[in-house]
Amino acid sequence: MGATKLLKFIERDQAYPAKRTADERAQDFLEISRPYILAKAEEQAGRCSQCGVPFCQVHCPLQNNIPDWLKLTAEGRLEEAYEVSSATNAMPEICGRICPQDRLCEGNCVIEEGFGSVTIGSVEKFITDTAWENGWVKPLKPVADRSGQSVAIIGAGPAGLTAAEALRVKGYDVHVYDRHDRAGGLLTYGIPGFKLEKPVVMRRVERLAAGGVHFHLNFAVGRDASLAELRERHDAVLIATGVYKARQVEVPGADGPTTMAALDYLIAANKTGFGDVLPDAGQFDAAGKHVVVIGGGDTAMDCVRTAIRQGAASVKCLYRRDRENMPGSAREVANAEEEGVDFVWLAAPAEITATGVVAQGMRLGQPGPDGRRAPEPDADNRFTLPADLVIKALGFDAEDLPTLFGAPDLPVTRWGTCRVDHKTMMTGLDGVFAAGDIVRGASLVVWAVRDGRDVAAQMHQYLRARASTAAMVAA
């Protein structure tokens, strides 16, 4: 019976969930897409070709069993679809919202050429949202009692939370330390609500807390305890801090009174969304201001779209390459343009003044080692953009963790990321592991989830060996 519901890509057009109008969504921080109804989710899942080599799965960092849960969705077997989806992914509804599917699963769908890919991300989101609504997302319950061993996880972002869940299920006493006042990392404070509404993140955190994961918030390693002290308290430590150090704009005026780092701006906006009262809220409010955002990645898109919602007088995105060479999601660029953002392509900041950004026109030269054409100054092309607020969104590097954690013996690479054995995921310090962006550099949430899953398995092996050794010594 199920087969008759599949392979419908020839007769059914691709259809994403309807987006709210640009005027409507620019007034709030709610997600921009309306959810699928059941019939539409079944219809779109039924477009899957069930191909022999599922390239969607091959190109998913988590190796999600996408064809199987699409088939189950097409057949109306949503609870089973959720079980398959969640078997490999600790937060499928979050990945369904924020993964760049156009570059991963959907971009490698075999029917994409000619018929339009299956709307994998939207179906994934629908499945798990439905699971939450129907009580199919079960409480976290350890399958064994290993509470005699405890684990410290530094960082409550996607890598840390994924590892916390996997290790708690194994029965370990899990403690998560985070310097913010809410768990979630960039899911909570770095990604705006119009891409990821915060209750979606908080219910994941609450499930972990209800399952026995201990959260120590407003806790900064190096201030409240050194790395050495955490190693004394716990049998293993995971560093999953992410990378938070903003890359700088090396031009005159880059640290002037009208400039700020993208993450400072986004954290303030998200805190305001939670209802927090900030003493310097006006500094981070774009209302009535002419805003220029420097950068071309997804963080820059988050900033320009946030400024629109705050009521900016104008919002411009300054990027040194052209649209085709932009690192951010093409969908996000389109959403931003619909909402009124003006993109200034082939332009880089030359100076930031109290009233604007002096921009240097650029042109694309020969491809560099990475295959991308390198931007070069167009000497005769300079112009000024008026700006009351300039947001620097050029990406993130690792903080100086050895100094920050009071751990000069913590090995790091020349980029400042944690140096690990890529088989065991352990650093040069016994029992100290690292995963996520603090190892691979600024990357995608889905890779952080993958790393959190993988490092939990490695830590489990380490802890079992440690417990076995201790038992033999005791005997």
Automatic annotation (TrEMBL):
PANTHER family linked to this entry: GLUTAMATE SYNTHASE [NADPH] SMALL CHAIN, GLUTAMATE SYNTHASE [NADPH] SMALL CHAIN-RELATED
Keyword Ribonucleoprotein recorded: no
Gene Ontology MF term list: 4 iron, 4 sulfur cluster binding; metal ion binding; oxidoreductase activity
Keywords in alphabetical order: 4Fe-4S, Iron, Iron-sulfur, Metal-binding, Oxidoreductase
Name of the protein in its database record: Dihydropyrimidine dehydrogenase
Organism: Sandarakinorhabdus cyanobacteriorum
Start and end residues of each Dihydroprymidine dehydrogenase domain: 25-135
Domain annotation FAD/NAD(P)-binding: ranges: 150-452
